[in-house]
Every structure is written in C-alpha cells, then in structure tokens.
Amino acid sequence: xxxxxxxxxxxxxxxxxxxxxxxxxxxxxxxxxxxxxxxxxxxxxxxxxxxxxxxxxxxxxxxxxxxxxxxxxxxxxxxxxxxxxxxxxxxxxxxxxxxxxxxxxxxxxxxxxxxxxxxxxxxxxxxxxxxxxxxxxxxxxxxxxxxxxxxxxxxxxxxxxxxxxxxxxxxxxxxxxxxxxxxxxxxxxxxxxxxxxxxxxxxxxxxxxxxxxxxxxxxxxxxxxxxxxxxxxxxxxxxxxxxxxxxxxxxxxxxxxxxxxxxxxxxxxxxxxxxxxxxxxxxxxxxxxxxxxxxxxxxxxxxxxxxxxxxxxxxxxxxxxxxxxxxxxxxxxxxxx
Length: 337
Ligand SMILES: NC(=O)c1ccc[n+]([C@@H]2O[C@H](COP(=O)([O-])OP(=O)(O)OC[C@H]3O[C@@H](n4cnc5c(N)ncnc54)[C@H](OP(=O)(O)O)[C@@H]3O)[C@@H](O)[C@H]2O)c1
Known about the structure:
CATH architecture of the domain at 10-180 and 217-245 and 299-314: 3-Layer(aba) Sandwich
Helix content: 25-40%
Domain NAD-dependent epimerase/dehydratase: 11-234
Strand content: 15-25%
CATH class of the domain at 10-180 and 217-245 and 299-314: Alpha Beta
Number of helices: 10
Protein name: Nucleoside-diphosphate-sugar epimerase
GO molecular function, one term: aldehyde dehydrogenase (NAD+) activity
CATH superfamily of the domain at 10-180 and 217-245 and 299-314: NAD(P)-binding Rossmann-like Domain
Number of strands: 13
CATH topology of the domain at 10-180 and 217-245 and 299-314: Rossmann fold
Low-confidence stretches: none
Largest sheet: 7 strands, parallel
Organism: Amycolatopsis arida
Order of helices and strands: EHEEHEHEEHEEHEEHEHEHHEH
Distance between the termini: 18 Å
InterPro entries: Epimerase_deHydtase (IPR001509), NAD(P)-bd_dom_sf (IPR036291), NAD(P)-dependent_oxidoreduct (IPR051783)
Bound molecules: NADP nicotinamide-adenine-dinucleotide phosphate
Shape: globular
C-alpha cells in the first residue's frame, strides 16, 4: 500500500471501494500517502482493502486490523453509501445517521488522527430557499427523498462533532460526480442523475423546467478526488468547502455532451414550471423517476463558494461528460469487485 513519495499520511478511506472512494484512494496514492480502504466487501482497487461495516462498533474491524488502524491512521475520509435517490428511510438512516455516529466515535479513538474529511452532497440542502453558501446547512428546507435527508443528517452530525478537543473533521460537498468509473467498466446508471442517461441515449424525451438551462453542479471524479486530497493536506480543518466544475455546465449541456458520442441529440422538452399536475404528466410521458424531482433548478447556490478552496484548483478531465457517454458503450458489469 505504498505510494510513490511517502508523505507520512496514512489515510483510512471508509467506503473506499465505491466509485468516488476508488478515485479518492487513487488520488491519495498519487499524493504519496499510504491508504487503507474499509467497506463491507473489503475489496480495494488500490491500497489495502479491509472488511468493515459502519453500522458496527469500531466498524466491526478484526482485532489485528483495529490495532494497525489505531497505531497508523493519520487521516480519514468518510465516503460511504448508500447513494440511491430511491433508498428507503431504514437504509439511509442506519448508514448516514446511526453509521455516521459510530464512525465519529471511532475517529475519536484514533490517537494519531490529524484530519478527517466527510464527503457530503449538495443534495443535503434539499429544497433550500434563498442563496446558499458553505455556511448554511439547515435553512428550514424540505427534502425530496431519504438520500437527501440521510446526507443532511450525516453533515449535521459531523458539524455537531466539531467541538474543541475532537479531531478536526472538514466537510467537502459535491453535486453529481460524473466521468468513467476509476475501477473500470461501465458507469453505474442505477442511481442519481446517471439514471437518466440510458433513457436519453435510447431517444426517449425528458421534461425539464427551462429545458434544463440551469446549473446542476456536476464535476468529474478525478477533480473531486483531488479536492479531497487538498482538504487532507491543506488542511481544511473544521471548514466546509463546495466543489463543482468551474465551467458550470447546465443540466441541458450535461445531457447533450453525454449523448454526443452516441450520435444522439437528447430530446429535452420544456416542462414549464413544474406544478403538481405537470409533474404527474412528466412521470407519465417519460421523465425518468430519478429526474422528476430534479427537473427544475435545485436551489440557489452562490458560485463564489469555490473561492474558499485554496488554489491551484484541479482541472476537471477534458471532455469528462463525453467520456461518460463513451464508457456507457461498454457492456454492463455484472458485479463490482
Ligand atoms: N457519486 C456522487 O455523485 C456523489 C456526489 C456527492 C456525494 N457523494 C457521496 O460520496 C459517497 C460515495 O459515493 P459513491 O458514488 O462512491 O457511492 P458507491 O459507489 O455506492 O460507494 C459506496 C461505498 O460505501 C461502502 N459502504 C456502503 N455501506 C457501507 C457500510 N454499512 N459500511 C461500510 N462501507 C459501506 C460501499 O462498499 P460495500 O457496499 O462493500 O460496503 C462502497 O465502498 C457517499 O457518501 C455519497 O453520498 C457521492
């Protein structure tokens, strides 16, 4: 699990076998860190993989692993799932709420821990009203689904844990993260925004307010992972950062660029302001379920939040949206290792 230049960072990536976690693991290794990945399956595309479950005390780690984690971990990244927008309350809360409490208690038992980073989602802001910056979390918002509420609870717990004496935990928020899967294979189109891609590529219409001409805060997996590494190294301390592609592609542009390699022009239909009836109509005439609640501007995020991230910023991979479309041409992966 050695990186090429040993920085002395020994990073525990909880959820590191997943899509974003794999990107973060690779970025940590490139930065010269040692990396240990925890997930229920215990697999790791890079670094050392160990089995663990955030719902169990001390992550359910075997005694020998626990001893090494305690002795060696200097940094931690929390990027565990589930991530489905359709996840139910049981799974969302047992992981993002109860699981997060267990993880935070565990981090307090790591004597060498210098900095942890929680990977949050802009969706934790739900239907926030008014302009949102890195300061706001609860604005009286309602939530579209249990995933949003789960991510809200996780960030709430992290912020509440930032008391004096506790190890510093920073928060990095992302919108939808796109780009080819760092683990290889076909991108997962089961969840979130990517669930709309097969539908669009097959030539079916989607109904969007303003024809999707609003920012959707996407970024690519590589720049997202690099920002997490910056947060570990800067370090971020107890602050909150938000990262998205500074080019700010609109939802419409994202769909057009993902479809381009297929020679398909997405059929985006103007839904007007989506009232209850138009939403129901949208569902019937072909707006994918994942997209129905995200077919209008999500909230008003102040783009100046980017400036709180120290420069130089990572550059998103050129044409990561087209690369997402091209990766979808690969045959479906049966199961991730
Ligand atoms: N992808 C995005 O667009 C995006 C955007 C913003 C924020 N995020 C956040 O980033 C994190 C990772 O997202 P992702 O897209 O990489 O999801 P993912 O591919 O589904 O990965 C989730 C990871 O969490 C692990 N995990 C799930 N339940 C666990 C448990 N009980 N104990 C230990 N590990 C567990 C999974 O491994 P096992 O199943 O083997 O346990 C996997 O390693 C999530 O917290 C998500 O909210 C993602």
